[in-house]
Amino acid sequence: MIARIWRGRVRTELLDEYRTYVAQTGLRDYEQTPGNRGAYILTQKHATHGEIITVSFWDSYDAIEQFAGKPYDRARYYPEDKRFLLEFPELVEHYDVTLADTTPLNTAFQA
User: Fold this and answer.
1) pLDDT band at 110 (very low <50, low <70, confident <90, very high)
2) Phi/psi at 31 (nearest 5 deg)?
3) What's the rounded Cα separation, in Å, for the pair 14 and 16?
4) Which of 27, 61, 80, 96 keeps 20 to 30 A from 2, CA to CA?
């Protein structure tokens, strides 16, 4: 399994709205791509900006290429991203996942 990680800096006041936008665009497209094993959105507010990270999991680099195109390590952006983002990183990171806990998060955490 491969983890694909994208990071972005967002205008602080738009972070919550952008998180929703990413879920409706990027995460939706991840889910519709064969070979995707799931994804998460992480966010954090700072004094000067918001930070958003998407972490998606894939069966293969070929599956990632179906989502991202060639080269598979380039970031994929959507039409409204320019309204939210402060910068546009060209590349994303990929990591081989060598050990995974397959317990769903919603049942693994007990408050």
Assistant:
1) very low
2) -60, -30
3) 6
4) 80
